[in-house]
Amino acid sequence: MLTTYCLCWQDNADDGPTFTFPEPNDYVIADLCEWSFGPDDKEGIFESPDYPDEYYAKDECLFFFEASPDELIQISFVGLFNIEEDDHCKFDQLEVHDGRYGFSPLLARLCGTVLPDPITSSTNVLWVGFFTDADIEENGFSARYRYIKNPHYSLNTSLPIVGTMNKDVSVGPEDCFFKLDDQFDGEINSSVLRKAIMDQGRYPARKVDCTWEINVPVNYKILFEFHEFSLSFVNECDYNRLIVYDRYALDTRQLSEFCSTTAPSVMTKTNRGYVRFVSTKEVDRNDWELIYTAYRDKPCNTTLSFECGQHICIDHALRCNGRPNCWNYASDEDNCQATPPLLKGKIDATLGVVMTLILLTTFLTIILSCRHSWIRTKHKAREARQRRTVERGAVQYLMDTGEVSGDCSSDIKTINPESFQRYKYSEVGTAGGGCCVGGNGKNSHGNYLKPPEQRAGTSPRSNRNSDGGESSPGTANEYLEQIMDRRSSGTGPGIFTREMESGQPVPSKHSKRTWNMFV
User: Fold this and answer.
1) Who's near 244: CB < 8 A, 6+ residues apart?
2) Rounded distance, CA 271 to CA 191, Å?
């Protein structure tokens, strides 16, 4: 039973009943009596409820078959066939439709007691519905189905049709269908439809016939509300129209058909509805948008639901979600601190700022760390150069004053040959007798341990200090001991030598030259 609420619209367009509100507690679970057979179900039996006993009064059952693309469906009736008889099968009937929906081409409408002939589909989908009224129940039917090869199938038929610049391209109901399951609300609009057609390579199309199947959770009904409705041909339903069905996409289950300038709200009495858009001319000029909402009849569970006016309740999760879900007045969006889109924008902005600060801090930390490491390395290198300069001068001073004598080979270490080229070498015998520097501070050739630019044409420095007096050997010895202590402790290098083949940077068993230097 439906209760009609009349509202007056500006254009006084004839869209049928302005709004139909289902009677409270008038509810049916959509898939209460349904069977679906997929591509793997190659053959089997389907029957009316309780066959061969009497079927139920006021019953609606659906049998849906979908084979592989290269197959057809064939059904043949077996055993007893008995459905309330009528010349037009208007009381109880078995309907067979060649396609995905109840509005697909009708192959047969059956009733009576005569066993029907076999029926074969022309595509890989078949829709069979069994409907009974409140009076006279019979035994029903039993039928066998099987999938057979389609002799006319071609791989090309399954490829998308390229519709660019082709105004003859059509998008039919078997190719353009959408299914939305188990959501409390959602949105359908013409823009999404155009994009979907374009993605299939069928845009622009001259004819469009697309269907949305919406399933909400059990024990909920569906409210459809249009927020935009503008068709290219007003009041020309043959050119463009939008149809809403309840439970089945069947003509007898049609709730409303809109082709004017307005589209009032529509409510189902089951948890499944269909929205079908048909346009045969100027598809691009149709703009519409509707929101669907799962609702319950009052009274409401205040913990789980939100009251929408005097009649319905919606799930509490839809409160302040940025989408008007309450019928006739968006009270669910009242007194919201911030709508979710705005709140989401603020959260995104905050996260963006935080992430930017984190990245900037990390970058600055890396830069400062690298700079500190560079400064520290530079400082160490400068200290090493200063230390080598001081120690080199000290050793030269000791050589000049003759403070070093004896066998110093035990204080010599090996270094890289390239480091010796600034310094004079002294020849020693293969027996190793001799020292780096003689007691008088000279080597066997009378030169001093100086860089090459200071050796030629020079004489030993006088053992005098800056005021002309004799330097103290004890002071020089202490200086040398400090240098040696630093070398032995690893804080500085000492005096060392490198044995090499004469004129070559490779060690040899032959006569050797002893390189004396300090680094």
Assistant:
1) 224, 254, 255, 256, 257, 266, 273, 274, 275, 276
2) 26
DSSP letters along 489-518, please? TTSS--EEEEEEETTSSS--SSSEEEEEEE
> In this predicted model, what pLDDT tens digit does every residue of 236-262 receive, in sequence order?
998 999 999 999 999 999 999 999 998
Q: Which two tokens stand for residue 296?
A: 């319950």
Q: Which residues are within 8 A (CB) of 27 and not within 5 positions of it... i.e. 6 or more apart?
A: 219, 221, 269, 270, 297
SS3 call for 199: helix
The angle formed by the CA atoms of residues 141, 143 and 147, to the nearest 5 degrees, is 160
**DSSP-derived 3-state class of residue 316:** helix
Amino acid found at 450: K
Structure tokens at 460: 């030993």
Backbone φ and ψ for 3, nearest 5 degrees, come out as -105, 130
User: Encoding tokens for residue 62?
Assistant: 């659906």
Q: In this structure, which amino acid lies at residue 323?
A: R
Is-contact 436 404, C-beta < 8 A?
yes
User: Which one-letter DSSP state was computed for residue 16?
Assistant: S
Task: Give Cα separations from 259 to 192, 372, 421 (angstroms).
Answer: 20, 75, 101
Cβ-based neighbour number of residue 447 at 10 Å: 17
Tens of pLDDT, residues 421-477? 444 333 333 334 444 444 444 443 444 444 444 544 444 444 444 444 444 444 545
pLDDT one-digit tens code per residue, 367-410? 888 888 888 888 888 888 888 887 777 777 666 665 544 444 44
Q: 């001068």: which residue's tokens?
A: 393
Count CB-CB contacts under 10 A for residue 384. 13
3-state secondary structure of 291: strand
Which pairing describes strands 185-189 and 240-246: parallel, antiparallel, or unpaired?
unpaired
Q: CA 265 to CA 18: how far, in whole Å?
A: 8
